[in-house]
Please model this.
Amino acid sequence: MVAAVSVGHFPTIGEQIVSVGGRLHQAQYEIVTLAAAMHESDEWLLEANTAAHWIADALDIAVSTAREWVRIGRALSDLQELDDAFRTGRLSYSKVRAVSRVATPENELDLIELAERTPASRLGIELAAYLKTNEPDDVRDARLHEARSLTFRTDADGMVHGTFRLPPLLAAILLAILDALVMQRSRRTARPVTERAQDASADAPDDEVWPSLAQQRVDALIELAQRVEAAGTGTNTSPMNAEVVVHVRGDGATLDDGTPLTDAAVERIAPRAFIRALIHDAEGKPINASGRQRHPTARQRRVVKERDRCCVDCGSSDVLEFDHVPDYAISGRTVVEELVLRCAPCHRRRHRSG
Model:
């Protein structure tokens, strides 16, 4: 007779993450509540300049982190529904942090419902779209202009870390220029096919061949600064062209990713912008545009970008390229139905594996 042996259940890594995450969520709610209480008390007065400084010293954290805890905790004291959603786990810290910046007792229920159905990664865009419908254009543009900033700090490794906040249209223009420079630099520094084939046969990882997108954008920013300096001395002979697509529909204007723009901002750029129309059918889909040339036309690029919006492989919206499926060498044509958006790393990876 064989005796039955009871083996206990060992939690998976995923189960452990969920368990620890639940405890972390409760701790985050408690810490922001206590941070607000510390701010309202007089315990810190003799030991620090602010309650946030006292918390930072006590816990050995950055003052900016403690200051954010105080802000969220104080906001929750006036937003009982949001406080309840955070306390009970309906909304994460990341979502509460975003919602608490713009919520009022009058709109918090609407914003909680919005946050519950929106992924945290997209919540900022959806909150901005909500506010746009409840804020006059001139008030919104003035608020965004007042909130602009560019800050720097030196990190422990000696690198300088910068953060900027820009109104959406200005940010779109800057990023479009940087990404256009990234694409230009990639074409200039592309290695011969034989070298890429050798790397592929050796299974060389992408990051050994290409710098990361963040590194390429830094290089582009430096090149942009050099071009500006050269323009000032009259030695710059290379123009910089980049396209920013603004979608103007019946419910308002947006950038490609859905970031809302005020009508006033669009009106300001219209007189000096070269405008092209992208026609949509009755179902809101961009109308096909086809041709037999190797590279997509400007209209084809707009149609495919409006249709796919992001990389069809990884979902990234950074440095998107137009990929022929099947390859142009096979089809001999360039039509919208055989073009897809892929980010540069996925595009390269597909052709290397092929």
Summary: Residues 13-129 form one domain. The chain has three domains: 13-129, 166-233, 276-353.
